[in-house]
Amino acid sequence: MPAWVGPVASYVGQGLVTTLLLSLVSIAASVLLGVVAGTLLTLPSVAVRAVVRVYVEIWRGLPIIITLFFIFFVLPVIGLDVDTFVAAAVGLTLWGSANVAEVVRGAVQSVPRGQSEAGAALGFGWRPRMRYVILPQATRRALPPLVGLVVNLTQQTSLAAVIGLLDVLEASQRSIERLTLSGGQTHAVEILGAVLLVFFVICLPLTVLSRRLERRLR
Fold first, then answer.
1. How far apart are CA 129 and CA 147, in angstroms?
2. Predicted local distance difference test score (pLDDT) of residue 89
3. Model confidence over 74-105: pLDDT tens digits?
4. Which residues span the membrane (predicted)?
5. 19: nearest Cα among 69, 88, 78
6. Regarding predicted confidence, which is higher, 13 or 1?
7. Is the pLDDT at 173 greater than 90, yes or no?
């Protein structure tokens, strides 16, 4: 095994741990906030829906890279200092939660209106109808697109490198630069090929799961 492989693998491995941790934090926060926001979008209150709609449209409409730059470079100007990991997690969560909210809203509204009317006829208020009648059915409809969104969010973590987070992509780029300066050979094909394989191994099972869920829940 070439001498450069061990140090590079160790360094890139540190970046991979950061990428996985960032993915888990962003996915968990996105699902939690997105489910709440998506449910609020189905409330009878026009004012509540309007406020949540503004949140969703802003963070869905902005490119993630712009959001990351804003959080990392603009917030310190107003006295809110954040490190690269927190900035990346917040930026990805804003984008992810807005998209999850739309998935949840669509799933809830796809449940036939008669289901809600039947719950109301049984004396259920809005909360019991959502908990016992609507959300169990909406969950089945939302699962395939949510899994697909998880895949997309995992892939988007690579954008965190633009603000200097030492994720798997940034670690790979730095390793290539060091090898170029020290030995004149980049080994870019091997290193970036390994990164490609890592993302493929992570995302392929989720993609297959999304397709299977979609077929099973039709």
1. 25
2. 95
3. 888 888 888 899 999 999 999 999 999 999 99
4. 20-46, 58-79, 186-209
5. 88
6. 13
7. no
Structure tokens belonging to residue 180: 């170029």
Q: Which tokens sit at 190?
A: 């091997």
- Give φ, ψ of 3 to 5 degrees: -65, -25
Using 50, 70 and 90 to split pLDDT, how confident is the model at 218? low
User: Could you tell me if 190 and 27 are in contact, meaning their C-beta atoms sit under 8 angstroms apart?
Assistant: no
Long-range Cβ contact pairs of 51-56 (< 8 A, separation 24 or more): 52/101, 55/98, 55/101, 56/98, 56/101, 56/102
Residue 129's pLDDT is 80
Buried b (16+ CB within 10 A) or exposed e, 88-99: bbbbbbbbbbbb
- Say which residue the tokens 């070439």 belong to: 2
pLDDT tens sequence across 189-199:
888 898 889 88
Q: How far is CA 63 from CA 55, 91, 159, in A?
A: 14, 10, 11
All structural domains of the chain, each given as residue ranges with its CATH number in brackets, are 5-216 (1.10.3720.10)
CA 148 to chain centre: 10
